[in-house]
Amino acid sequence: MLEDRKQELRERHGIPFRITGIATRRLGWIADPDGLDFASVERAPSPAEGREADQKPANVRDWLKAARADVLFEATALNVETGQPAIDHIRAALEHGAHAITANKGPLVHAYRELRDLAAAQGKRFLFESTVMDGVPIFSLFHELPAIHLQGFHGILNSTTNVILSEMENGLSFDESLKKAQALGVAETDATHDIDGWDAAVKTAALITVLMDVPVSLEDIHREGIRELTTNAVRNGRRDGWPFKLVCRAQRVGNGVKASVAPEKVLSSSPMGKISGTSSYIYFETDIFPGLAITEENPGLYATAYGMLADFVRAVS
């Protein structure tokens, strides 16, 4: 997407850029402050065939220094238990003096205040729009709504379970529905985080921590997945006009927040009842707007990429 929007970023937003570092499991740590040819690096079968100018850093701090990075895009896989290694990558970027942009929810749950405060102390941005509902501007929306108080929210934030439940409504078994979701590229090979509600719980915790300013651990969120639902129950729910959905809920209670992730029967004619496939939905309750809802219809991979691109523009403009 950076390459696709390169001309627009330069001409419309005044943002010229070059990619000076790429790090993956396959390629290792590659850096060239003069700029990398992304296409040739992508084709390289091993780190040994990277650019000759590669200074061969061995860790994230050496890599950031070798790349002379101004911005880090962090997109490692979610670690529910610790948020690592994403937290260390973001901390290293901020301490290096670079803006940090992530699509990983873990750092928001396990280290949000530390990283937020570190970014402020360094005069840099720590941004994370792609962590919930892909690139839909949820966090930046509330940034543009000063002095508003979020009382609670509910919604459907996990597309894998949504696809599985939709297929079960059509008569497939749970295992058959999961295999279909995997074949579509929606579900991971190990879909435990989705099926057992961990992904939705982490997203719920991230929204509570950032938007409601209440630190919350995953243990504080009542969590149930969809593993125990049967095809008959799911089909009957749809037939009766009350389909099952994996629903995230949070409500301010005193100085804290009560939160849950669990399968619920919802009215088929309601906004949540109409959510299917890879679509998502969230409904916010605020002291100014009693109801503010956002629906995302069947996003693709570019939607997540766009969230990071938008954060890039926010960070460097």
List keywords for this structure.
317 residues, alpha/beta, six-stranded mixed β-sheet, three-stranded parallel β-sheet, 38% helix
Question: How does the helix and strand content classify structurally?
Answer: alpha/beta
Order of helices and strands: HEEHHEHEHEHEHHHHEHEEEEH
Poorly predicted tracts of residues: 48-55
**Global Rg:** 21 Å
**How many angstroms separate the termini?**
18 Å
What is the strand arrangement across the widest sheet?
A: 7-9-8-6-10-11
- The residue fraction in helices comes out at 25-40%
DSSP helical segment count: 12
Number of strands: 11
How can the largest sheet be summarized? 6 strands, mixed
Q: In percent, how much strand structure appears in the residues? A: 15-25%
Description:
The protein has 317 residues and is of the alpha/beta class. Helices cover 38% and strands 19% of the residues. It has a six-stranded mixed β-sheet with strand order 7-9-8-6-10-11. A three-stranded parallel β-sheet has the order 3-4-5, sandwiched between helices. The longest helix has 17 residues. The two termini are 18 Å apart. 41% of the residues are buried. About 3% of the residues have low confidence.
Quick structural overview:
This protein is an alpha/beta fold.
SSE layout:
Elements: H1 6-13, E1 21-24, E2 28-31, H2 38-43, H3 60-67, E3 71-74, H4 86-96, E4 99-102, H5 106-122, E5 126-127, H6 139-143, E6 150-156, H7 159-169, H8 174-183, H9 192-195, H10 198-211, E7 221-223, H11 231-239, E8 244-253, E9 256-265, E10 280-286, E11 292-296, H12 301-316
Parallel strand pairs: 3-4, 4-5, 7-9
Antiparallel strand pairs: 1-2, 6-8, 6-10, 8-9, 10-11
